[in-house]
Amino acid sequence: MGIHLDSMNGDDDGRVSKSSLVPAIAHPTPEDSFGVAVNIKYHVQFSPHFSPLKFELEQAFYATAESVRDTLIESCENVEQLCLYTKRWNETYLHFHKANPKQTYYLSMEYLQGRALLNAVGNLGLTDAYAAALNKLGYELEDIVERKFSPWEIVRHDIVYSVQFFGEVQGQSNGSRKWVNGEVLQALAYDIPIPGYGTKNTISLRIWDARAAAKDFDLYAFNDGHHERAAHLHSKASQICSILYPGDATEEGKLLRLKQQYFLCSASLQDIIARFKERQKDCNSIDWRDFPNKVAVQMNDTHPTLAIPKLMRLLMDVEGLGWDEAWSITSSSVAYTNHSVLPEALEKWPQSVLAKLLPRHMEIIAEIDKQFQALLHSKRPDLESRISDLQIIDGSNPEKVVIPMAHLCVISSHTVNGVAELHSNILKNELFSDFNSLWPNKFQNKTNGITPRRWLRFCSPELSTVITKWLRTDKWVTNLDLLQGLCKFADDKQLHKEWAAAKHANKARLANYVLEVTGIQIQEDQGNES
Question: pTM (2 decimals)?
Fold first, then answer.
């Protein structure tokens, strides 16, 4: 069905009069700018973010994002029907489930992905269609994408895992260890769809929300006036996701930071194992030896280090594997990226705090440390004099025993990488020099880069058009080596002219923005045009 929003409040630029010419219809054909416009209009009317009687900038942003989500999520009957601009999220994961490839799981406390809306429409090849559609509705795409809202999280009510804290460890008659009692919260999954550029894939950024189970609300205590006590666990859950990196000067602050880190690791590892087992369902039994062939866990700095003892605990205490098999799987599946040699990237946590919050995991960390020391004794006795600089449990100050998380990462990972050649050399020759002498093939360099899609193709379309024209292909967007093809035109005056015109257009846009925001007028031609 379609309706006209003639009753919406307007402003002096006649935006509503333009908008009223566009009907509101769900599920348009996305290659048509009018179809995109009517779908945006549909979400203005029916998506419950704002009053349907208004069509202001924030509402336009949400409605546009909802329209893009339709394109990302909608499923086709078969993969062959998909074309580049109708790639589908659901089809991607159906394909992954059937093909059962090795997947990388990048664990990080934060993801700075930039403007999701501009990235999505650009990767889908729909920038022009959305720009034209929004123009029909009285808006500019450039204004929409700068809104600071996030409508992208899609709740997955069927993906919930229990996350335990505190408690105690009990020995079992069969020699196993069992973590009991303590505080149990729920991790609820939210997915953010991220489409690839020029591919059929739309993958997920999965994030987690902390909640208490409904049964943990004490209605009797609440009705007796003990409101805080009644919702005690609900309050604890809300603290985990309220502020990232809370102050850790106090023990309570340290506990909360570790809770955040473990919450991410626990939910993610349970999710990874569940997916691995689901894809092995057709087999008569689970072949855990295949786990490293299907799973790569990349730890971003030391914040997700607890993924190591968590994976060990799940494999041993839940899946019933022995230590040696669990260690072989874990050390073949996890890798560590170090971004900085600054202290904040090389966390050291008090053993007492870790043991209090995660008693079973502290046992596992202690055993990893014990076996590492045995390895040094048998293979590198020359390093035993430096054991205090290498071990995972640093007891050099008996009153303040700490766990250097970077040591746990290096010892447990199959690969350690820096993010620039100079940085990686510092890791190998200074920070982790003894580890490098023990495992010289473990350390690698992976130079950080920037995406040419965002920082050239999308943000400078004029310059991109010039490059594509002269190279006679747009494949340079995913293969920057092709830019070398411009060298043969280095002396071509026509290329110089077009290049300068593209840069001048960008400078003019910047000058207009500076004038609009600050009231300061700058000269567009100031500086070198080369």
Answer: 0.85
